[in-house]
């Protein structure tokens, strides 16, 4: 159909009854008519509470919604016009700097961003610029910078390397080394290495990469080869989990080699989509020439961002949650979410068809694969299995659940896994219903007389991207 047809129930006298799909209509409509059309179409997006694929928060309370509606118009970049919002942003990243044990939170730098992807770009740029300054001071070339990262990094790091001309050196994950753990790191770094990216909550599997072990490996490399290589911690998820649930784990600024850390306010920070944070260990870790300065109320405000205009409402929502929940509230919320994840992992781990990729979740995220030799293709050989994890994902979607199946990264790309992300709002009751539906789907698939058409020809849709 080329036009959007208006239900006669909503049509008004002398008003158009259809709208072109791909061009602006010549004649407008009443607000309630336009609302109804969009409302009805957006209804097809699905139930956010049953989306177990996304890390992004989809629920906040009524007071947060009220605050959000009062702040729709605030532009974070316009610090002259919105000095109170700018001040709140400053308070928030300083709170986060303390949460991550920065040595001097009052004299470092941080900022909000649109999300973790922008924060990662800024962290990578600071590493590159610091490396460039050091090379120029010693009269060395600044050509061919490289950065070391796991093959399981989120796509934003591929974008960083592409957009800012940095060679990515991917350390492949394997059965023996399921995350970047410092193994063989010596062979990946050299004098052109601007830094190492360490992930607190790998998007494929939810596992932490051991920051302390990697820092120790870099300490040893420096003592032997003289290479001072800093770490950026991509804590998009774990940055708002570890401080509350694993406070004794050393992954943050307690490790001197960690130069910067980012997180997503809109993931386990519990805010609606559109918010990230990055903090540097000290002011010296963020080169001055990356900072732009604006003045407001007679003062000086440093600013850095890849975007210009961006919403300020999410910053206020983050501050609201910090005040409303406090440390104890975040511990309770994140703990409840982790309890649900452990329950689900335990129930799925008991099912004979599945093998968990990690025994105990680091964050409320876990992955599993099919048991047996066929696990490496997601297919069905063992016990005559005639279905794949892609078939299971499709079947679960019929029950309303979105649970992605996808291949692992390079070096394990012939292995298919399935993953669940548990977020605030996924209660034990909903988790019990999911387990019931999962068992129902597996029972149906086990009863197939022949593989489904997509499985029989070895085809499947990705439907999911990292």
UniProtKB/TrEMBL annotation:
EC number: 4.1.1.15
Gene3D superfamilies the UniProt entry points to: 3.90.1150.160, 4.10.280.50, Type I PLP-dependent aspartate aminotransferase-like (Major domain)
Catalytic activity: L-glutamate + H(+) = 4-aminobutanoate + CO2
Presence of the UniProt keyword Lyase in the record: yes
Record flagged with keyword Metal-binding: no
GO function terms (MF aspect): aromatic-L-amino-acid decarboxylase activity; glutamate decarboxylase activity; pyridoxal phosphate binding
PTM annotation (N6-(pyridoxal phosphate)lysine): residues: 267
Gene Ontology cellular-component annotations: cytosol
Names of required cofactors: pyridoxal 5'-phosphate
NCBIfam families per record: Glu-decarb-GAD
Family that this chain belongs to: Belongs to the group II decarboxylase family.
Name of protein: Glutamate decarboxylase
The organism of origin for this protein: Corynebacterium provencense
Gene: gadB
């Amino acid at each position: 159909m080329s036009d959007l047809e208006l239900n006669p129930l909503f049509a008004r006298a002398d008003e158009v009854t259809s709208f072109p799909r791909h061009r602006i209509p010549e004649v407008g409509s009443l607000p309630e008519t336009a609302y109804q059309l969009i409302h009805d179409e957006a209804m097809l997006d699905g139930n956010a509470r049953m989306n177990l694929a996304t890390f992004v928060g989809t629920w906040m309370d009524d007071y947060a919604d009220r605050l959000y509606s009062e702040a729709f118009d605030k532009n974070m970049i316009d610090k002259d016009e919105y000095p109170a919002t700018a001040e709140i942003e400053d308070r928030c990243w300083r709170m986060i700097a303390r949460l991550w044990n920065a040595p001097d939170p009052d004299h470092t730098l941080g900022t909000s961003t649109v999300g973790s992807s922008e924060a990662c770009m800024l962290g990578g740029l600071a590493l590159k610029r610091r490396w460039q300054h050091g090379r120029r001071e010693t009269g060395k070339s600044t050509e061919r910078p490289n950065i070391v990262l796991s093959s399981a990094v989120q796509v934003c790091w591929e974008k960083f390397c592409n957009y800012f001309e940095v060679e990515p050196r991917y350390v492949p994950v394997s059965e023996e080394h399921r995350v970047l753990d410092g193994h063989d790191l010596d062979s990946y770094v050299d004098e052109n290495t601007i830094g190492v990216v360490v992930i607190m909550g790998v998007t494929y599997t939810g596992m932490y990469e051991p920051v302390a072990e990697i820092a120790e490996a870099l300490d040893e490399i420096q003592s032997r080869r003289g290479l001072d290589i800093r770490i950026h911690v991509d804590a998009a998820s774990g940055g708002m989990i570890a401080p509350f649930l694993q406070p004794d784990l050393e992954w943050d600024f307690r490790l001197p080699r960690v130069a910067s850390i980012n997180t997503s306010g809109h993931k386990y920070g519990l805010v609606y989509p559109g918010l990230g944070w990055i903090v540097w260990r000290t002011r010296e870790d963020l080169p001055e020439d990356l900072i732009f300065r604006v003045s407001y109320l007679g003062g000086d405000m440093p600013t850095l961002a890849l975007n210009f205009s961006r919403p300020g409402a999410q910053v206020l929502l983050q501050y609201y949650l910090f005040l409303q929940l406090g440390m104890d509230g975040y511990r309770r919320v994140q703990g409840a979410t982790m309890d649900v994840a452990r329950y689900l992992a335990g129930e799925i781990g008991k099912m004979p068809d599945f093998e968990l990729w990690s025994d105990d979740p680091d964050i409320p995220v876990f992955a599993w694969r099919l048991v047996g030799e066929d696990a490496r293709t997601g297919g069905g050989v063992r016990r005559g299995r005639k279905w794949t994890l892609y078939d299971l994902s499709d079947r679960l979607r019929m029950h309303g659940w979105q649970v992605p199946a996808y291949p692992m990264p390079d070096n394990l790309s012939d292995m298919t896994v399935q993953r669940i992300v548990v977020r605030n709002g996924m209660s034990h009751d909903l988790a019990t219903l999911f387990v019931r539906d999962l068992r129902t789907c597996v029972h149906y698939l086990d009863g197939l007389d022949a593989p489904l058409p997509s499985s029989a020809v070895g085809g499947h849709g990705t439907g999911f991207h990292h």
